[in-house]
Amino acid sequence: MNEESALNLAREAKNKFPFYRWLYNDMDDYEFKTYSDLPTFSRDEISIFEHTFDHNYFEPLQINEPHFIATTSGTTASPLKVVISNSDIKKFLIPFKETLHQYFGEHNIASLPLHENLSNCYSLMSAMGEKVPYIIPKAKSSDWESVRSIIKQYEPLVILDCPDNWAKSFPEGMLSSLNVKGVVMCLASKETMERIGSETKIVTMYGSLELGCVSALSCPINQEVYHIFQRDLLLGILSNGQYKSEGTGELIATVSFRAFPFIKYSNGDIITLYDDSCTCGFSGRSVIFRERKFSIKLPDANGCNVNYHDIYKSISSEYGEGIIMFYLNVINKNGIKHRILAIFIENESSSRPSLASDLAVKAADVGTGMDSCLRGRIMCGDWSSYAIISIFVPKGSIPPDPAARKKRIFVNGVANAVPSEYNPLIATLENFTNYIVESSVQ
Q1: Which of 39, 66, 105, 384 is 20 to 30 A from 188 (CA-CA)?
Q2: C-alpha to C-alpha distances, 270 to 75, 238, 274, 280, 311, nearest whole angstrom
Q3: Region of residue 179 (left: phi > 0; alpha: psi -120 to 50; beta: else)
């Protein structure tokens, strides 16, 4: 895809979707002179549109083929619904299979059932006559003896969609001893790579549900570099307010193969984008992931969006890494529902929890990028309530995440139930604020 075809896609989308008519603010066709003229958007604009007009951003959408609506996990921001159709999967699947073939040659594929979205994709693939990966039963996926017997029976050469901790319970080198040539993972820690062994090639995935699930696969030689295999995808970056086709900045993507096209969309990633011929044999566009901008929406008359990643970086520079933030639905003493960002900071000098009001002001300033505009207080209509709460807690109050190598820094209670190990922190929050946390706690 090039900029001219993306520009034509924008003209079509403006005529078809109310969201794009709203986003382009009734721009006339003559104003669509270049791709750079188009505004960028993110989940923030989607959230504002849906709140204003009270319907999904992708409506009206008429699809005369099998499809389903997937929802992003909500790990880094508010959950987003994405429509995935039969045609979407076809346009994604062909280049993905070609790339796997280049990496691994002929292959049987087994897969782990990580997410409902994956099962839905496989159902559509099966209906299309495509060979579907063998699904390793979830109940057996962490039992290495069961995995060993499944691999011996099915003889897959590639195992797809593995979490980082998947292979940690396996004997070192088990996969290579079973002739598994490659593992395709979301992430791969040094510990996991050592356990899998050098004889089994590890490829990690880069992308997001909005960008077509997996848009790039890591270089077999350099894991930090991701080669872009998707053809119907136009990537650029935004740097100092300027759109560029390469360089380092905020990722800007146009995805034409979705039933609802994403045109100059930012998922919040900071990347380095360039064209090159790699020593692995790949020639084309490549990405190096730098960091991710994490943004959440708090109640505010102007629709305030807070970047909690910036807040974390600012507070951790002063207090270290003993910090966790919760994005929560709460009910205040007046019975009004709204959302808050609760920040807990482990402090050696704290023998008991205590409010850190000054820190809440700093968090508001840093998170919004607006110097002291909110003074730690978020306004909404004719009422005001603390929407950013900072609490010092004694050392050891924040439990480690059993599924991670280090403590979690963010729990999205708006998207998912808060895990039970954080119940004491939620109770502390309720005691200090008289809020009732509406997000269900397991």
Answers
A1: 105
A2: 17, 9, 13, 24, 17
A3: left
Is 130 contained in some domain? yes
Q: Is residue 318 domain-shared with residue 377, that is, in the same domain?
A: yes
- Residue 60: is the preceding peptide bond cis (ω within 30°)? yes
pTM (two decimals): 0.69
Asked if residues 308 and 300 have their Cβ atoms less than 8 Å apart, the reply is no
Domains contained in the chain, number: 2
| Contact between residue 201 and residue 183 where contact means Cβ atoms under 8 Å apart | yes
Residue 197 clears pLDDT 90, i.e. is over it: no
Distance separating alpha carbons of residues 300 and 294, to the nearest angstrom: 18
For residues 389 and 376, the answer to whether their CB atoms sit within 8 Å is no
Residue 274 sits in the same domain as residue 382: no
pLDDT of residue 31: 67
Q: Of the candidates 215, 225, 226, 222, which has an alpha carbon nearest to the alpha carbon of residue 265?
A: 215
Specify the 3-state DSSP secondary structure of 138: helix
Question: Mind listing the pLDDT tens digit for each residue in 256-283?
Answer: 877 888 999 988 888 999 998 888 888 8
